[in-house]
Give the backbone structure.
Amino acid sequence: MNKSLTPSAYNAELTIPPSKSYMQRAVAIAALADGKTTIFNPDFSNDSRAGLGVARALGCEVEEFKDRVEIMRKSKTVADTVNVGEAGLGLRLYTPICSLLRSGITITGGGTLLKRPVDEMVAPLKQLGVTATLTDHCAPVHTTGILQGGEATVDAGKSSQFLSGLLIALPRASKSSHLVLSAINSRPYVEMTIEIVKQFGGEIYNFDFKEIYIKPIAHYDGCKYFVEGDWSSAAAHLAAGAIGGKAVINGLNCNSLQADKAIIEVLRNCGANMEIDSMTIITRKTKNLKAFEFDATDAPDLFPVLAALAANCNGISEITGTQRLIHKESNRAQSIAEEFEKLGIKVDITSNENRMLIHGGKIHGGVTVSAHHDHRMAMALAVMSLNADAPVTIEDAESVAKSYPKFWDDWNNAL
């Protein structure tokens, strides 16, 4: 789908959708829990719907309502193949979870997910009793053996998602586990996982992200769980308000563990006019936004929107963490440089220094740009269109459905 956007003032007031990161974790734990779990304020993005499908394949009854989802494990029968759609988090969460429930199961997906390497899962799973066979370093993943627990060394330097999967699965293993972390990135996402595991009755002891101990428990307890608002989705609107008019965003937890809450820090650093009151954040158009420096290593999903913000700042902004962008829905560093160049914005990528330099300046429209089938790129390009000097057409605009199906409705209502 192509989306043509005319430069416009921006005026949004909306309640941000729920966090798909928390939603996916809640569904995964509920699939292992005894009793019924009710998830309030559920997310129904493509990734979260894929997770609900996996829960059904793992023997759960899943009922969907507008305001809640109810999940109850009804059967010990587990499908021989589960499909996580295009969810990278889903693949890495459910590989250890499925290995806990059945020996001999295939975890597959679709789209660009089948081109994203997951070699980091193989060695730790082997140490914990499971043999994982990859398909050319990627999914489909076939596992044999049952996840037993024990001691394993985990490299979470490229992604912490598999570590989160282990932290969800291992409390239900037959013996205690000791994970030694050889590298770690995206610490806030691991903290999120530990937080929600504890809410369902798990016992995890984290020693400064160097060692993590997991105590086996008899069962997870089904519970009532409320999904907080999604900072990743909010970031595009908050940036749009700062460069294009006004954004009033409701439903955000300012004490959240979500990594993308860092958008507030960046907006402060570049001098944006901003108000924060309880669960509402307001940004207003600010003249002469300043270039900024930010390390996005722990918040790679913010990168495209930060780049769009930087394009509207005076001077050269520096964002560190480009190595985290290679195996996303697209190679985001390359995609940002390629599409921003079409819009007249110079982007320098220094791979050896793991950073990106964005030269703020005049944004030229009258062009067609591509989201590269990447939801975060589509949102960032929408932000870029606000101050362009002519209309901008975005290809693959439908990619927002991966995380934020109503994005274009909310965006159109603000123009």
